[in-house]
Amino acid sequence: MRVPSSPQVRLPLVALLAAACTAGLVQAPARAADVPADGHRSLRRQLQELTTAPGGPPGAMAVLKRGSRTEVYRAGVADTGTDRPIEVTDHMRIASTAKAYTGAVALQLVDRGKLRLNDTIGKVLPRLPRAWHRVTLRQLLNHTSGLPDFSDDPEFLALVTEDPRRRFDSRRLLDFVADEPSAFRPGARYAYSNSDNIAVALMAEAVTDCRYEDLLAQLVYRPLGLRRTSLPQGYRMPEPYMHGYDVTPPDPPEDVSEVLSASGVWASGGIISTPKDMTAFIRGYAGGKLISDRTRRQQRTWVDGASEPAGPGKNGAGLAIFRYTTRCGVVYGHTGNFPGYTQLIAATPDGKRSLTVSLTTQVNKKNKPELLERMRTVEENFVCALLRKK
Question: pTM above the 0.85 mark?
Fold first, then answer.
């Protein structure tokens, strides 16, 4: 399905934002091939084959980092109108990997005593619907809250369809589902919801009297040296950037980099960053640089659930982080998809080895299920290369 670039369009629901829900434990793709001895050539070839697959991205990049050693794998181009390759300093929409940044803020506030994991919406955000008041910060962070997803709401979708570049009041996004019942009793099961991270950001603002954007800068960007990371409100991309595309054969790829306003996703997926900055983030976040050991132990209490799209191997959900158990070992991270972009960030539990994979088209189980399974196989092979002893 297509995501037209005109600001006045009817957007297909499947390509909207980073929504889509999934439940249960996701298994590894079948018959994932071992990484051969000529690993570098094989990984480059696999990444290139993703770009030439039906519906595949015009560009792709993978960044492996072991200690201070970095390996960069590229395929395709950053812009179909040029032959410019993707660079590690190119900006891109990081989609739902932004949810890990929300977690980084919230869990640091837990360490500082500003929040507790058992604090409820009713205590911190009493203006929100009474039906949600028993939901805890812990349940928001591991997607067991039962909050209805604002990005699936018909009124919200109608407004985005009318004007994809509409500037929403990001702090009022939950108003779209304020009259809807909870999907289930808090804590009863897992269901991925964009509403969860909006509520987390609002809780962080409520207990600090600081804007969420400022909290990101103070608690995440500065400590980890993220110089090209931001949370905008508009639709513009900072230069230079890797262009994101809707790829729907037989039509040529259509640039959708600046189709949607980030204000309609905000803390659930609106951050713009670069492969270099995302590598620094996941190494610090998964490696525990930002939070105490005590809070990390709470973060790594796993429930059955997968990121969206599913990451490599078997997925398990923690507090704003996922465990990916592959045939070669375990990494922690997050994935995301947004019109024009698909992301994976992952690192070893000590943060010393990391992987960032970025594609310049949206891939999820609804719009491109076959390509998703192929992508997950390639991601697992990159994880195996990352974890292989030298």
Answer: yes
